[in-house]
Design a protein that fits this description.
Elements lengths: L4 H5 L22 H6 L11 E5 H18 L2 E2 L9 H9 L5 E3 L2 H9 L4 E7 L3 H13 L4 E6 L2 H10 L6 E6 L12 H13 L3 E7 L11 H23 L7 E5 L5 H8 L10 E5 L11 H5 L15 E12 L2 E4 L14 E5 L11 E5 L4 E4 L13 E5 L4 H4 L4 E5 L9 E6 L3
Parallel strand pairs: 1-16, 2-9, 3-4, 4-5, 5-6, 6-7, 7-8, 8-9
Antiparallel strand pairs: 1-10, 10-11, 10-15, 11-14, 12-15, 13-14, 16-17
Helix pairs in contact: 8-9, 9-10
Length: 427
């Protein structure tokens, strides 16, 4: 599925300035292309800085593309993870069926870069957004757009705000007890599908949901809850297909980045069943960056659970600015710079040829602009002021949203990483 490659390439012609956190002042007033031509290294940047590892991204994209193909499902990775058209382009080039988003504004950003097939994994009842989608679909008949409906009221509101020849394909969302959005029972979902069938401007395109809201770990109870939920999605799809509710084939979609194996186990077979042509779509988004925290602990594609594991492609780099106590170092990165909602950063090593790190070192807290790095049993001379620490991070979704421009380095493990690209984000 397409993206406007010229629009993505044009990002290299954007001007750099002080609004781009972490970039050296020597880059200001230059284009991205011109600055990269100077072959900069990471140690020329200011701290704090977030980086992306080029080789890890490429490997992760290939791992997920191959895994999905072998499983018989399609990928529509969640673009809100990175909000980076340069990275969406890599995913689409590797065979992704489309890109998923969470808000109509994110959809509008994607359309400005020519993304041709989009799943809005949310209900769309905003009148301005609905009219924009209708107009965009009329302007470009090849644009494919799908969004959620999870109540009869949602169907009525969409019908109220759409006019003329506008027609939008919708996916009935099935939720779960104490989950997020979505009809709470299969029976309620049938009522929604019936309402869509009566609507003049909506077309039922499939069923879907999000299993990640029902479990936050891979305990037996968590796995059981996810499996039961996905089985209910499969049941709903089969019943709607048997009732002749799909006028144009069907999409069955689920999947965050925590339980893609269970989505495949429970839903992939629907694509092979006789009757309504069915595409099973997995919406995992975090895999392209992965992490050293939450997803490293739960993803079935992480080491050591996978023979071909995903790798963390993001790291924070922060400088020691204060050593007020023998067992405490303050770094110059904080909540404004690094994610903290799914676990605190983990110190990995001290940058430079002679750096060393206390094996017991750990982060105990983040303030807005400081990291509290504890050094149990440390001495006053450990980690002197000015030392740069590489930090492993958890949850790419809340890392990327803190940076307008992210340096891409050739090797995060190198003694002196080289900056080979700059990724623009749109949050």
């Amino acid at each position: 599925m397409a993206i406007d490659e010229k629009a993505v390439a044009a990002l290299a012609d954007r001007m750099l300035g002080p609004e781009h956190k972490g970039l050296p002042p020597a880059a200001w007033g230059r284009t991205v292309r011109d600055f990269l031509d100077s072959a900069p290294h990471l140690d020329e940047f200011e701290t704090p800085v977030l980086t992306v590892d080029r080789a890890a991204v490429a490997a992760n994209v290939a791992v997920m593309a191959d895994w999905a193909a072998a499983a018989g499902v399609r990928l529509a990775p969640h673009g809100k993870t990175t909000m980076a058209p340069q990275l969406w382009a890599q995913q689409l080039a590797a065979g992704s069926w489309g890109i998923t988003f969470a808000t109509v504004w994110q959809v509008q950003v994607a359309r400005s870069f020519g993304v041709g097939r989009i799943v809005l994994a949310n209900a769309l009842v905003d009148p301005v957004g609905l009219r924009w989608v209708a107009a965009e679909s009329a302007r470009d008949p090849e644009f494919e757009f799908f969004c959620w409906v999870d109540s009869v009221e949602t169907v009525a509101l969409m019908e109220q705000h759409l006019t003329g020849d506008a027609r939008i394909r919708v996916i009935v969302e099935l939720g779960g007890p104490h989950g997020r959005t979505g009809a709470r029972t299969v029976e309620q979902a049938h009522e929604i599908a019936e309402a869509v069938g009566r609507a003049e401007r909506l077309t039922l395109a499939g069923v879907g949901g999000y299993e990640g809201a029902l479990a936050h770990d891979r305990t037996p109870d968590g796995i059981s809850a996810v499996r039961h939920y996905l089985d209910e999605i499969a049941r709903l799809h089969r019943e709607l297909a048997a009732a002749g509710r799909y006028p144009e084939g069907a999409i069955v979609t689920a999947g965050g980045s925590a339980f893609p194996d269970l989505v495949v186990e429970c839903l992939a077979g629907l694509a092979d069943e006789q009757g309504v042509p069915t595409t099973v779509v997995l919406r995992s988004g975090a895999y392209i960056i992965h992490d050293d925290g939450f997803y490293a602990g739960i993803s079935p594609l992480a080491a050591p659970r996978s023979e071909r594991p995903l790798r963390s492609a993001m790291h924070g780099w922060a400088r020691t600015v204060s050593r007020p106590e023998a067992e405490l170092a303050l770094l110059d990165a904080g909540k404004r710079d690094l994610p903290f909602d799914e676990g605190l950063p983990v110190p990995q090593f001290v940058a430079g040829p002679e750096g060393s790190l206390n094996p017991a070192a750990h982060v105990s807290a983040l303030n807005d602009q400081h990291t509290f790095l504890r050094l149990p049993g440390g001495a006053a001379g450990d980690l002197p002021v000015g030392s740069v620490v590489r930090l492993g991070l958890s949850h790419p979704c809340t890392a990327f949203d803190k940076w307008r421009l992210i340096p891409v380095i050739d090797d995060a493990d190198a003694e002196r990483p080289r900056v080979v690209d700059l990724v623009h984000t749109f949050f």
